[in-house]
Structures are given as C-alpha cells and as structure tokens.
Known about the structure:
Layout (H helix, E strand, L loop, with lengths): L1 H13 L7 H13 L10 E5 L5 H13 L3 E3 L11 H8 L4 E8 L3 E7 L6 E10 L1 H4 L9 E7 L7 H14 L9 E13 L2 E10 L9 H6 L3 E4 L3 E12 L2 E7 L6 H36 L7 H4 L2
Parallel strand pairs: 1-2, 1-3, 6-7
Antiparallel strand pairs: 3-4, 4-5, 5-10, 7-8, 8-9, 8-10, 10-11
Amino acid sequence: MASLFxxxxxxxxxxxxxxxxxxxxxxxxVAASDVVAPRRNKQRVLLLPxxxxxxxxxxxxxxxxxxxxxAKKDSKLDSKSNLHILNELAELNNCNNTLYFxxxxxxxxxxxxxxTPNGPSAKMHVQNIHTMDELKMTGNCLKGSRPLLSxxxxxxxxxxxxxxxxxxxxxxxxxxxxxxxxxxxxxVVSFSIVDNKIWFRNYQIIEKDPGVVTDKxxxxxxxxxxxxxxxxxxxxxxxxxxxxxxxxTVYENPEYISPNAVRHNVRRxxxxxxxxxxxxxxxxxxxxxxxxxxxxxxxxxxxxxxx
Length: 307
C-alpha cells in the first residue's frame, strides 16, 4: 500500500505546474522590455530678478510667479557678469529651466530664458510692461490652475522661432504632476509675433453652462469667450546661445537696436536742434550788423539837420 501511495503522489506531482523553459523566460523578458513607461513631465522653473529692479519690474516678476505654480522663486542675484552662477542655483533648487530678469540702469529690463545646465538660452529685451494691478482687467482665474498655451503660426516658419516656441512650451507649460497646481484649465497664455517681436498676453476662458446646450443656434451663442487678465509684455529677441547663459551664438537679431543707442540718438538729435537754433540766431545777428554797417547816411536825417 505504501508503494502504491508513493507512486500516486509522484504521478500527481508530475501533473502539476511544469518548469518554464529558457526560451519562454527570454520571451517574457523581451515582452516586459517592450512595455514603455508613461513619460512624466518634470519641468521646474527657477524664477529670479537681479539687483536694481524697479517697482513695476518687481510686480511683473510676481505676476509671472503667480502664473507658474511649478516655479521656484529665489532672491535677487547680485552679480550681472557671472551668470554661470545661475546654473548652480538651478541645480540646488532642482530646476531644469531658468527665467532671469536682468535690470540695467533702472529702466531697461532683459529676460534670460535658459535650459539649465546645458542650454540653449535666449536673451530678450522686455518692453511695454503692464502688470495686473496696473491694468485692473475684469478677467480672473484660479491661482495654481494650468494654462493652455497658444502660439502664433509664425513660430513654425523660422528655425529660431521654433526653438523659442519649444523653450516657452517647456517653461510655461505647467506639468500635470506639479504639487501646487489645481486640476482646472481656465486661462490661456498667448504668444503672438508682431513686427518680429513676441507679444505675451494672458486671457481667462469664460463658458456659460457647459454641457447643457443642445440646439446649434444656441450653441453658437454660448461659445466660450476670452477676457484678458494680465500681465502684458513685449519680448524682442536679441541672441540665442548654444549653451546656458553663454556659448556659441546660434541666432542674432539684425534688427535689434539697444536702448542705449536709441537714447544716444535722441540726445544727439536734441543737440543738433540746439546747434541749428544757435547757428540761426548767430546768422541773424550777423545779418543785422551787416545791414547796419552798410546803411547809407541820409543828408536830411535828424542828426544831420539839427547837428
């Protein structure tokens, strides 16, 4: 009986799970390697100004920070020549993008947009600054909500515009996994190209009873509308560098004129006007003196008669 029991137990074990062959194990490993993990957007932006910013510039930086919940704001940077320090600051703050607002002479503002630490980077001149407090627009959006990014079709026509579009997409596109975001999309950040300059605008998306309209005519009347929130600014590209805050020049704007040159031309024009006015006064005085010297003496004048 014992021998029969052992024989039956061996036969039952033989009928169990068989060992996987080496070919099956290899095929399973290949199938597991083919499964691609979903890509995670881990963009973080370091936002900081330089020393010497004015009140309007500081408010603009605060408005940009409010639009970017994935941004990390740092204290003002003292040095304006050693910009490579920003790469180390971005690494310390675990950021792979940097927006650096550099103030010059308390009236000129420049924006450095860089992909740290390897680049590329772009330097732009910021003009026509209008902050949220200054505009007092009626638009409003939830703080921390994710924006839609709208780019002009001209960004796809030139290589340098396409590069700037990709940089702005990674910097202003808020990741879905950011910690401080709200799960809503209620505003649009617009980048438009006019006169070879980038116009930055921020609009609120207003919908009236979404999902309720069924009639086509009523649906046309209930289309979403846009109301501007702010801030506003115009960016003039100056140069695009291969590295982060330096390196080889990839693109240089031939139409860009520095504010110092513009102010110099204005002062020179005023100097030319003053010199022309002074020369005209001198010529008038010389003409009067010449006419007075060439005037003939009249014999019947009062001085001759009653001399």
